[in-house]
Design a protein that fits this description.
Helix content is 37%, strand content 16%. The chain is α/β, with parallel strands linked by helices. The chain binds 4'-deoxy-4'-aminopyridoxal-5'-phosphate (PMP). The site of 4'-deoxy-4'-aminopyridoxal-5'-phosphate has 14 residues, from helix 4.
């Protein structure tokens, strides 16, 4: 027995998903990235339809100029934690801008979105507290529970009644419970019943944290996310988000109506024991945030594309993770081979998407995930839909067989 024996099953799975001769569906190498929506993979130009670049801001001229200027004047990295030499004015200003956007007193920036969940959740809930999380939460939420010394309780995915029962069972302890949900689940593209969940959480006296990783920038008049769109900002205690999707950078944040959020800077290991985000990233993100708050034009473009894609998927008989149109369209299959064939077919047609298979997916589903960007052109959408149309005839889920 060696340390590596346990990886044998994973290695077999990995080699079943592609070899060196064809672009693999896992960790597909991008030789060049030329814009928010176009890249070169295995010598071919493809339309990117599997990124989280929802607003296309990675190539926004002002964001790039802000990053270059910051690198020129402050260097490439901070080489230190926020608690030591890595606490620059730009970090503070971005925190202020994020908190102000929500009209809240507190905001903390973390080095990634993953660390925002890890750092906020594991510090807020500690020994004697309870974390109540959706069973299909992102890995960063599950890992935060592991790092925290709190008791963790899972409720059934998007099941508000189940959440209610779990909190009821806690009795008085519910007042020390933190409920954590995502607003938009990125694997299937489905949304949490946030109105019901906010009401239930409040009724039991617990706290509510919403991860808006995939909805920040896209929903709500100012792009603050689904809580803003539903008018729930006065019923939510903490919002977590990432810079790596609609904001086009890397990093994450937690904002709160509770000024006491500030206290976790002294306690959060994923905040303290890692280097702070570099000046270029912070400057680009500050500019991207301004663009998001004033981004009705980008949101309108994205939503036009979203409706066009969802209409096409329904017409072509593809089974999707949800019928409610959103920036993520998950085409679901029971069989892995069918999902792999669609992924490869789209790749051969010059369309890059994401293949997701168990154990990384809920309910053992095999998924080809398409995500859209405001930076896609109408022609890009036409190309993606034409490829889906051609391939639909070869699918076990062609219109006549659609579930
Ligand atoms: N939360 C959710 C819901 C996510 O989907 C992700 C990224 N996929 C993260 C947090 C982590 O964000 P990042 O990749 O920016 O670290």
């Amino acid at each position: 027995m060696s340390l590596f024996d346990k990886f044998e099953a994973l290695a077999r799975l990995r080699s079943a998903l592609g070899d060196d001769k064809r672009p693999s569906s896992v960790a597909t190498p991008m030789d060049e990235v030329n814009s928010a929506t176009s890249a070169v993979i295995a010598g071919r130009r493809v339309v990117l339809a599997g990124t989280n670049n929802y607003l296309g801001l990675t190539f926004d001229a002002e964001c790039r100029a802000a990053a270059i200027k910051a690198i020129e004047s402050m260097g490439t990295g901070t080489t230190g934690s926020r608690m030591a030499s890595g606490n620059y004015a730009g970090h503070r200003e971005l925190e202020r801008a994020l908190a102000d956007a929500f009209g809240w007193p507190a905001g903390i920036v973390f080095s990634t979105g993953y660390q925002a969940n890890l750092g906020a959740i594991s510090a807020l809930a500690s020994a004697g507290d309870t974390l109540v999380i959706d069973a299909d939460s992102h890995a960063s939420i599950h890992d935060a529970c592991r790092l925290s010394l709190a008791t963790t309780i899972r409720f059934r995915h998007n099941d508000a009644e189940n959440l209610d029962r779990r909190l009821a069972r806690l009795g008085e302890e519910a007042k020390r419970a933190l409920v954590v949900v995502e607003s938009l689940y990125s694997t299937l593209g489905d949304r949490a019943p946030l109105r019901e969940m906010a009401e239930i959480t409040r009724r039991h006296g617990a706290y509510l944290m919403v991860d808006e990783a995939h909805s920040f920038g896209l929903f709500g008049a100012r792009g603050l996310g689904i809580c803003e769109e539903l008018g729930l900002l006065d019923q939510v205690d903490f919002i977590v988000g990432t810079f790596s999707k609609s904001l086009g950078g890397v990093g994450g944040f937690c904002v709160s109506r509770h000024p006491e959020l500030e206290l976790i800077r002294m306690a959060s290991r994923p905040y303290i024991f890692t280097a702070s985000p570099p000046p270029g990233v912070i400057a680009a993100t500050r500019q991207a945030l301004r663009r998001v708050l004033d981004g009705q034009d980008l949101r309108a473009r994205l939503w036009r594309h979203v409706h066009r894609l969802y209409e096409a998927l329904a017409r072509l008989g593809y089974r999707t993770g949800t019928e409610e149109p959103g920036p993520v369209a998950a085409i679901v299959f029971d069989q892995r081979d069918a999902a792999m064939a669609l992924w490869q077919g789209l790749m051969d047609a010059g369309v890059y998407t994401n293949l997701m298979i168990p154990p990384a997916t809920p309910s053992g589903l095999n998924i080809v995930r398409i995500s859209l960007s405001a930076a896609h052109s109408d022609e890009d959408l036409g190309h993606i839909i034409a490829a889906l149309e051609k391939l639909s005839l070869q699918q076990p889920q062609a219109p006549s067989a659609a579930a």
